[in-house]
Design goal:
Blueprint lengths: L4 H6 L10 H10 L6 H4 L2 H8 L4 E5 L6 E2 L10 H13 L3 H13 L12 H12 L5 E6 L8 H14 L3 E7 L3 H6 L4 E4 L5 H16 L1
Parallel strand pairs: 1-4, 1-5, 2-3, 3-4
Organism: Hymenoscyphus albidus
Protein name: Nephrocystin 3-like N-terminal domain-containing protein
Pfam family, one: NPHP3_N
Length: about 210
């Protein structure tokens, strides 16, 4: 049975309300042209794209699909992070939405109330819907900005690789010890060691201020 437009609007809200596109759109507007090419053309990223179930940790100020923002504590919550990731995958595939409807129905209690999903529930949902794709990329930036239990949240995000053969994970943060411990075994790229983006930014700022 085909899902109604009303169901498509209502049921995804069960997974939370944080919209990662707000941060994505803002960062795209602020991006200095030509920055980041050293990374996207580098061997670590190219290998991450090619390999199945690949893992990559960017050490430094990062690149992401979901942004953990220190100014917005809501983006530190594991249910919001995982819910936002799940919603993005579900929006791209009709079969994924049917998976969500089943997930939603399973959380209805006999008295009509709805049981809130747990972190494990959402990890399982992401694992399930990822199988609808040949490859699903999970990208989260700013793990170091999480104010509470960031090691635990990092551990849950890392576990997505173990749950599905189609998931690639890429995380970005400062090189904090607790995050590094959880991401042991990930390939690493240190943004701090690359100065080309800084040179581009400084040159652009000098030109802008000269014009003004």
């Amino acid at each position: 049975m085909k899902s109604s437009d009303e169901e498509r609007r209502r049921i995804p809200n069960f997974l939370g309300s944080t919209d990662a596109r707000k941060w994505q759109d803002s960062n795209i507007r602020l991006r200095q042209p030509q920055t980041g090419i050293w990374f996207t053309e580098g061997p670590e990223f190219r290998q991450w794209v090619i390999d199945d179930r690949s893992q990559l940790w960017i050490c430094g100020i990062g690149l992401a699909f979901f942004y953990c923002d220190y100014k917005n504590s809501k983006t530190h919550e594991p249910l919001e992070i995982l819910g936002a990731l799940a919603r993005q995958l579900i929006a791209q595939n009709e079969e994924c939405f049917e998976d969500l409807k089943q997930f939603y129905d399973n959380d209805h209690e006999k008295d009509g109330s709805i049981r809130s999903p747990t972190v494990e529930d959402l990890c399982d949902l992401i694992s399930l819907v990822s199988t609808r794709f040949r490859m699903a990329m999970i990208i989260v930036d700013g793990l170091d900005e999480i104010s509470n239990n960031r090691a635990g949240i990092t551990r849950h995000l890392k576990s997505l690789n173990d749950r599905s053969n189609t998931i690639k994970t890429l995380f970005a943060s400062r090189p904090e010890i607790d995050i590094g411990y959880e991401l042991e075994g990930f390939s690493q790229v240190s943004i701090a060691t690359n100065s080309s983006d800084l040179r581009l930014y400084v040159t652009s700022e000098i030109e802008r201020r000269t014009r003004e």
